[in-house]
Amino acid sequence: MKSIQALFILILGITSQISFGQFTDEINSNRPGRSMMAFSVGKSVFQTETGLHYVNEDHNTLDYKASGFMAEFDIRWGLFFEQLELIAEFQYQNDNYTSDALDKNRSALKKTLFGAKYLIYDPFKNYEEKPNLYSWKANHRFKWRQLIPAVAVYGGANLNFSDNPFNFAPVDVEEPKVSPKVMIIAQNHFGSRWVLVTNVAYNKIGSDFASIDYIVTLTRGFNAKWSGFIENQGYMGNYYSDGLLRMGAAYLFNKDMQIDASIGKNIKNTPSLFTGGIGFSWRFTKNYKEVKIEKDNGSKMDKKMKKKGEKEAKKRKDAVEE
Asked: pLDDT (tens digit, 9 = 90+) per residue, 83-130?
């Protein structure tokens, strides 16, 4: 665990390259998957992402069952800089828990998380791909630049001010009131239809609940309105380790609204988990102002040659006038 902590400190320490965020003409939602994209929503843009899910849990060893619903509500707000985004995540669950000795209702805020995300590298900054007017094959071939991801870092804090009946720790282990979370986010674009997002997180740092988590999401756009995704999420902690698979689809209602549906299943039966739900994303863009990014004018040598050419052109012009 110490080596993993050192790795995260090293990564966060060396990621100092600054880039610019991306405001899209159409809403860019993290839903229906659970991964977080590298790009922000845009300066002064306010976005909400909500979901309602049916949850079923069945533990073969402890011989209990639980079923109910889980509600999600995320707030994303672009603030100060185009590449900075503030994020609040809430998750509430209410279910009925039954076993041979117990039958009770459980309800609590399962997750309360406040954090910030910052885009530190954008491979498309100052890069403009020019089409080849003479070769269809050249325009459609695989481009190695697509393997270079946009990279963002995230830092946040989990808050827990009540007994959480949904954690998997022993009864005598208390969850901390505040615990940090850090994450590295990578996002690749393969052509105009495929997007691959990878999250690697170190969650609830310094507590008995600390875990290394990952999410890998592959999304494909089918047309201007429909998209689908598949996702793998993993947890590696002292009290709980698991892997989950999800799939679903999203429909773009208009440029600022999206609806979605998804299902998910884990790979173990201690407990076995199944979820299925729908979601809605909406953004407010009235206060957004386009950020103009100055493009790089080239290397020092290019600038020197350009300046020299301008001087020579001026001399020729003066000679003609004389």
From this structure: 999 999 999 999 999 998 889 999 999 999 999 999 999 987 766 666
Distance CA 252, CA 223 (A): 10
Pull the structure tokens for residue 133: 């007017």
Tokens 């493009």 belong to which residue? 295
Q: Report the DSSP pairing between strands 226-237 and 103-121.
A: unpaired
End-to-end CA distance of the chain: 79
Q: Give pTM, 2 decimals.
A: 0.80
Q: Please provide residue 267's backbone torsions phi and psi, each rounded to the nearest 5 degrees.
A: -105, 0
Count Cβ atoms within 10 A of the Cβ of residue 232 and give its class: 0-12 exposed, 13-18 middle, 19 or more buried: middle
Determine the Cα–Cα distance for residues 68 and 55; give it in Å rounded to an integer: 5
- Contact 76/60 with Cβ under 8 angstroms? no
Please report the pLDDT score of residue 3 as a whole number: 47
Model confidence pLDDT, tens digit, residues 211-266: 999 999 999 999 999 999 999 999 999 888 999 999 999 999 999 999 999 999 99
Give residues with Cβ within 8 angstroms of 286, minimum separation 6: none
pLDDT value, residue 16: 38
Enumerate the domain spans of the chain.
Answer: 2-321
**Between 3.20.20.10, 3.90.1150.10, 2.40.160.40, 1.10.8.60, what CATH number should domain 2-321 receive?**
2.40.160.40
**Residue 136: predicted pLDDT:** 59
Pairing assessment for the beta strands 226-237 and 241-254 based on DSSP bridges: antiparallel
| Dist CA 180 CA 229 (whole Å) | 29
Under DSSP, is residue 51 helix (H, G, I), strand (E, B) or coil? strand
Pairwise CA distance, residues 128 & 32, whole Å: 31
Number of residues in the chain: 322
8-46, pLDDT tens digit by residue? 444 444 343 434 445 678 899 999 999 999 999 989 999
